[in-house]
Amino acid sequence: MDGNTTVDQEYYRMMEELQQLDFALVELTLYLDTHPDDMQALQQFNQLSQQRQQAAYRFECRYGPLMQFGHSYSRYPWQWMDTPWPWQV
Amino acid sequence: MNNQLREWHPYVGPFDPCPPMRVKTYIVPPNLFAPFQPANLQQYSLPEALRLGTLWPAYYSPYESRMLEGRS
Which of B40, B47, B54 minimises the CB distance to A27? Predict the structure, then answer.
């Protein structure tokens, strides 16, 4: 991602998928805080977090790291400071 | 109208400087009535949940803005 390459539709689609998964995970986390013995919700939470990891992995393979400080990999050369940044897309 | 909308009528004194607001409304979200969430509630699909702001239809509260309506 160099200069001012515009990102393709796939970028937005994968980003939205991540957002959907993340929001559901937040909701389930808050729910499980008060319902620790709800097996069905816990299974859903684990399934969704696995899906989220896979979605994030696919995204990062294609568009670079999502997080920093060792939470994401980077290709060569260092991709972290490439544009676009999340607020620019 | 929206079943979560409640309204009340503020006191209007004879010496109020500004035109009075005779009706004021507020929202009563579902979590007031069922604070402890029952298990295995029906869920929205993920895209809907993200857009509507909740995973469970039982706790959905639209909270539309009334800014566009004229002064009541």
Answer: B54
